[in-house]
């Protein structure tokens, strides 16, 4: 080893001994800096810890004036120490005082020192402090010495992260690691949740930082990397991964990172310096994360998630831990924090312990959001970097009304939200008083308010919310949460339970809407470059008639003796309705032949969510008993904007002139032929959007149970005649372009709550 370094392995061994000693936190810090200075033959070694007010406070030193400890400090960005914290990278200078960022602190007595080496104290890429060494002589520290100081900084990072240094903070100050943070995202499902963080893909906590046998650790790392690479190759070889397209390109980039020799070499070097294989992975990942966070190239910053995921998978390989969460270890007030997740993954959690959901990605009409809303779970999406800012168990307040999350909230924020929760409870009590009151406008127009559902857990909300029926029962959720294809008996039992729970209220069952982004793990999927426009819903059902007929048979048996309403999703041409009706007729005949009781009345309807149907409305109305508008898909297809893409999901307003005109065309065609029409998309549950929908003619809406109270309160205060008079010129093109703004102004002037 070149230079003055006695050897990082010797240093780490001594640090491990110090960490095991039964001494105070300050004594431990003092011993650590003395040991580093001795090992590196440095005249000065100092530890600066980042406080919540962005000040790097001197917490321990060997060589500077001891009376400066807990009194000297530099702001982030101030001086050499502040520069290291701001840039999250080492600084190696032969003559520190000549550097333009040098700041002289007379209370420390450091003016006589020239050579300077400082490294950030990092954990998960987050800067927690700065570790420095100094010498009188003019010299540049060797790379081995920089590496050794970075390695020992990990020990200090662990001390800070676990809270060992909190007791050393001066009165009125706190460490940055416990700093309250507020994140602004997008409101996806309303509600207020107070609880504790549960990471959907929890970071592995490395506790064994130091290892004696470097060769053994190298072999462990090599074996774990080999398993990781095999798993990545397996992902790329799966049949449901398209041979081309964006998803393939992302996975190819992921594989490139996994096979990167530089990544493996840096981890190997960390092991040679005395770290365990796990600590080597964490150190290299922390350095990589800090470097990528400084990048201005959006592509490189996006790759940060890939590196995080790769390192986490490698740590799990090393520690023999499976992916996922500990169901038994969930707190009773869990708030899930995730980059993104599927609807089935959300349903894996214990509903009794689940209070909220924070997503870095996800849009208001993504399926996990729809399920969260159906379950009454407060949700925010597009919460940038949420996963990296929290730890399991952190206190968190989630505001699903404003799209904000408050991590480690201070007392005044907790008090404020306590008041808000009490206010919401009072408002919900007022909505419950409206439960049995019909939704009739001030000028006497009755509006039917129905509920969207898909699980048995939804059914108690029917009576609680005062819904008139289930306007949309998503039958695919039973298939999405099952590990194998549900048998006909299981389907029949579910549908019968739904009908029994609804009593005399109508229920509209939508046939399987799978395919696209709703992939069933037990069903072989044909690779598709654009699944949202591909083989899904009724297209899949007609091509796999056995699957559709089994579901229709289960529905017929469950509906024996009462009205059965069945709706077909994603119809593009009316001929598809003819083919589906023919299959339905075969099942009706089969039931008769085998002596099964039939429903007293069978109604077949169609979703209107593909723009092509807008030009077949006359033929459509001749073939169906009712229609239901799926505004989520209709909007994304009309505007060519993927509803799951966070960059475009909110780009187009559903309360726009062109979209309302399209919806008005549908309701006018239904009214002209006397066919009932409902809108069951997510916009129906927002009072402002519901105001527009009833204004253009809809008299039946279906929404989440939590939305019924606010929409009903809006309708009871509405003069529909005045609303229609206001909307007509706007839809004709002579009014303002901002339709939503005009509706807000109308509601305010009329005293209509939205």
UniProtKB/TrEMBL annotation:
Per its UniProt record, what Pfam families does this chain match? GAF, PEP-utilisers_N, PEP-utilizers, PEP-utilizers_C
InterPro entries xrefs: GAF, GAF-like_dom_sf, PEP-util_enz_mobile_dom, PEP-utilizing_PTS_enzyme, PEP_util_C, Phosphohistidine_dom_sf, PTS_EI-like, PTS_EIN
Q: Which reaction does it catalyse?
A: L-histidyl-[protein] + phosphoenolpyruvate = N(pros)-phospho-L-histidyl-[protein] + pyruvate
Q: What is its EC number?
A: 2.7.3.9
- In the UniProt record, does the keyword Cytoplasm occur? yes
* Cofactor requirement: Mg(2+)
In which domain of life is the source organism classified?
Answer: Bacteria
Annotated GAF domain residues: 24-170
Going by the UniProt record, its keywords in alphabetical order are:
Cytoplasm, Kinase, Magnesium, Metal-binding, Phosphotransferase system, Sugar transport, Transferase, Transport
Q: Which GO terms describe its molecular function?
A: phosphoenolpyruvate-protein phosphotransferase activity
Asked if Plastid is a keyword of the record, the answer is no
Main location as per UniProt: cytoplasm
Q: Enumerate the subcellular locations listed in this protein's record, separating them with semicolons.
A: Cytoplasm
PANTHER family per the record? Answer: PHOSPHOENOLPYRUVATE-PROTEIN PHOSPHOTRANSFERASE (PTHR46244:SF6)
Family, per entry:
Belongs to the PEP-utilizing enzyme family.
Read off the NCBIfam families from this record.
Answer: PTS_I_fam (TIGR01417)
Q: What is this protein called?
A: phosphoenolpyruvate--protein phosphotransferase
Show the taxonomic lineage: Bacteria, Pseudomonadati, Pseudomonadota, Alphaproteobacteria, Hyphomicrobiales
